[in-house]
Specification:
The structure is a single chain. The chain is about 65% helix and about 5% strand. With about 625 residues, the chain is mainly alpha-helical. The chain has 2 domains: about 400 residues, Amino acid/polyamine transporter I; about 140 residues, Mannitol-specific EII, Chain A (3-Layer(aba) Sandwich). Strand 5 and strand 6 form a beta hairpin.
């Protein structure tokens, strides 16, 4: 039975609006309020196309994370996916990389607030750090109080920000100078492609929401809905905002200012417009910092649960249902970065690791699907599989090559550190099966040796869909399952069933066999091509049993008929007639799914057959 909101566990408090605002807020910051000025010098007005191309490049990562998050809605996002796909060694690196990447970029976003405020107050160096530290303290407090509080603040921030940008776009459209769009591609398409690679990292925040998937209500539907709506709406705002800015801002100013949107507003709305958009910029940095802290803090939590970090990181406060120690650790790291480190260079390293994680999650989709684990059942499945994953992986690896030698060296150092940590601390504490191992077993045709990952995904699936065990589930858990390779006739099947039922009910085998044949003579129990449900009534009280048979070669119920591969045999006393009918209804709902039949034929053993029945989509009757 599923228990939600239990003590020491994360609480599901985020809905579609919160998911949309977390994903949107994580995207809109320097990518819109600072980066256009840097990009304009490389692509001119063509930065509009560069932003569009950057949006296209992020699609493979978005699809991959949406699929993995709906199949495995657990805290940790990319870390959890890579760990279950590649194994704990790569999972350790993915966890450290994801945590560092999110925390560094969040710290950088909060420094951005200080930069904007310092332009008004003076005292640049000190002001920037004081403001950034103040924001870290505020968001730490919000994150500790509850995920609902954090989500509500994010909603207010993002909706206010989108409202201001809407005004900027609508009012700015009336003040466009068409001459500023020519020449549209001063540096040709090469400038557009190079600029898109720089801009792309700004879109990466979209997928941060996967890190808090465990705290999202109805994640199978909410995550894709919130993530995709954020992608389309924010991309539209990106394109329209940049389009307006190109049209209202003098090219010379555009190339030199670090506040292009604010300067653009000043051009048609005066000083008031400048300050309004400067406020919007600070809101944007706040949404990125808040979402980043929330997402980053879930990675140490998930790693601790897998014994890859000390256990205290995995503690969840009983009252607030938040990972307080993980949040505090992430906040302290962000504060240290603000105070002591050169964030601009470290953020480039974080971008390199983010691209590497994007490549990993695309490969993870391929590994999870090719592992043929029966309990891997994403609600959203990525289209164009596997080509979009292959293309995405190739693009992200090419982009990594443009990040510079220093970033690559530092990323390599982080991987070495992760390997040392894994072999010295984690390896002796964790033994975890991965999808990669499953794929290797499939290729080598070896029997499945471990069911750990399959069973874990089953438990995640049950929690995701809030499946409450009923009597049919309990019967299947205890049911005898026969897995037969050779073909057989109906009479052979009935003798097998008669022997089992006779032993179960302490009856004579020949009497059970006679009941089966009489029931078949009355009307065939092969109710669907490939499926038969022999069912009989036996003498006695409170007797009921379900026996399942899978025949790979097929069972012939009649000469020249369609072979039967699925058999559910039911036997019970007259007083069990209500449950008998309910069991028939449950079986009918299970087998009507074509995917179930295909999975049934391909299942590797009786454990997988049993699991397929238990996780099948059907209406449960509660405690029957």
């Amino acid at each position: 039975m599923i228990k939600t909101g239990s003590e020491g566990s994360l609480k599901k408090e985020l809905g579609t609006l919160e998911v949309f605002c977390i994903a949107s807020g994580a995207m809109i910051s320097s990518g819109l309020f600072v980066l256009p000025a840097l990009a304009y010098g490389k692509a001119g007005p063509g930065i509009i196309l560069a932003y569009l191309l950057a949006a296209v490049i992020v699609i493979p990562a978005m699809f991959a994370k949406a699929e993995l998050a709906t199949a495995m809605p657990k805290a940790g996002g990319a870390y959890f996916f890579v760990n279950r796909s590649f194994g704990p060694l790569f999972g350790t690196f993915a966890g450290i990389a994801a945590w560092l990447s999110l925390a560094l970029k969040s710290a950088f976003a909060l420094v951005g607030i200080g930069v904007f405020i310092s332009s008004f107050l003076g005292g640049a160096g000190t002001t920037v750090k004081v403001v950034a530290l103040g924001c870290i303290f505020l968001f730490t407090l919000l994150n500790i109080l509850s995920v609902r509080t954090t989500g509500r603040f994010q909603v207010v921030f993002v909706l206010t920000l989108l409202g201001i940008l809407s005004w900027y776009i609508i009012d700015g459209m009336a003040h466009l100078d068409i001459q500023r769009y020519t020449p549209f591609l001063p540096n040709g398409w090469r400038g557009v492609f190079m600029t898109a690679g720089v801009i792309f990292v700004s879109f990466g925040g979209l997928t941060k929401v996967a890190s808090v998937a465990e705290e999202i209500r109805n994640p199978g539907k909410t995550i894709p809905k919130g993530m995709f709506s954020a992608f389309f709406i924010v991309t539209l705002f990106y394109l329209l905002t940049v389009f307006v800015t190109v049209g209202v801002l003098d090219p010379g100013v555009f190339k030199t200012t670090l506040r292009p949107i604010s300067e653009g507003a000043a051009g048609f709305a005066g000083t008031a417009g400048y300050y309004i958009l400067a406020g919007a910029a600070m809101l944007a940095f706040m949404t990125t910092g808040n979402a980043g802290l929330m997402a980053a803090s879930r990675t140490p939590l998930a790693m601790a649960k897998d014994n890859l970090l000390p256990n205290f990181f995995g503690r969840v406060n009983l009252r607030t249902k938040t990972p307080v120690l993980s949040i505090l650790t992430t906040s302290l790291f962000m504060a240290a970065c603000v105070l002591f480190l050169d964030l601009e260079h470290l953020v480039k390293v974080a971008s390199t690791m983010k691209l590497l994680l994007f490549a990993f999650v695309n490969i993870s989709v391929i590994l999870m699907r090719e592992s043929r684990i029966v309990t891997y059942k994403p609600v959203f499945t990525s289209p164009l599989y596997p080509w979009i994953q292959i293309a995405g992986t190739a693009i992200y690896i090419l982009l990594i090559g443009t990040m510079g030698r220093t970033s690559l060296i530092l990323t390599g150092i982080f991987f070495v550190f992760s390997a040392i940590w894994y072999f010295s601390y984690s390896k002796v504490r964790t033994r975890r099966e991965s999808a990669l191992i499953q794929v290797a077993e499939n290729v080598s045709s070896r029997e499945l040796k471990s069911a750990n990952l399959r069973d874990e995904l089953r438990d995640i699936l049950i929690a995701r869909d809030q499946i409450v065990e009923d009597r049919f589930d309990r019967m299947i858990t205890q049911a005898k399952i026969f897995d037969i390779d050779a073909s057989m006739k109906r009479e052979e099947l009935f003798r097998l069933l008669a022997s089992h039922f006779a032993q179960t009910f302490s009856k004579k085998e020949r009497d059970i066999y006679r009941l089966l044949e009489e029931r078949e003579a009355d009307s065939t129990t092969m109710i669907h091509p490939g499926l038969a449900i022999p069912h009989i009534v036996v003498k006695g009280e409170e007797l009921f049993d379900i026996t399942v048979v899978r025949s790979r070669q097929g069972i012939l119920f009649e000469e020249g008929g369609t072979p039967v591969h699925i058999v559910f045999a039911l036997a019970g006393s007259k007083d069990e007639r209500p449950f008998h009918l309910q069991a028939l209804m449950a079986i009918a709902q299970i087998v009507q799914n074509k995917e179930f039949i295909t999975s049934w034929i391909n299942a590797r053993n009786t454990d997988e057959l049993r699991t397929l029945i238990l996780i099948a989509d059907r209406v449960r009757k509660g405690s029957i």
